[in-house]
Every structure is written in structure tokens, then in C-alpha cells.
Design a protein that fits this description.
Length: 79
């Protein structure tokens, strides 16, 4: 189980929000169409608290492509 203490572990996945050390539970897939090919996906990670903020930040710029639970994203990558 992810706990705030686990964020200090080397393999812990933490939120991409500035200064946040909470475990990530969401993957925000995005790309900047001015510099990335359409199929390219960059990722930010988000905790529950910062999911909306980070999604809004990417969304108003037209960059946000998908928001997926981290477990789902990880299982898709393992296939």
C-alpha cells in the first residue's frame, strides 16, 4: 500500500506537482503539438489532491490527452 512514508523509498512514484511528495495515483498523458508528433505521450504523475490542478494546467493549453489510474497505466506497460 502507498503511504506518505513510502514516498521516501527509491522506487516510490511521487506526484509531479512542485513540492509535493505524496504517492502518485494518476498518470496524465500529454503532448505539446507544436513540438511533439501526434502519437508522442509525455507523462506527469499526480496524487489525488493535485490531479485537478495538473489536469487543468495541461487542459487549458490543449496538451492533455488522457488521465489514467497509475495501476492501469503500469499494467498496460507490462503487456
Amino acid at each position: 500500500m502507498n503511504t506518505p512514508e513510502s514516498a521516501s523509498e527509491p522506487d516510490a512514484v511521487i506526484c509531479s506537482a512542485k513540492g509535493c511528495r505524496a504517492p502518485a495515483v494518476w498518470v496524465l498523458a500529454w503532448n505539446n503539438p507544436k513540438i511533439h508528433t501526434p502519437e508522442r505521450r509525455k507523462t506527469w504523475l499526480a496524487c489525488e489532491e493535485h490531479r485537478g490542478y495538473l489536469s487543468d494546467f495541461l487542459g487549458v493549453r490543449g496538451f492533455l490527452k488522457d488521465v489514467v489510474p497509475l495501476e492501469e497505466w503500469a499494467s498496460a506497460a507490462d503487456r
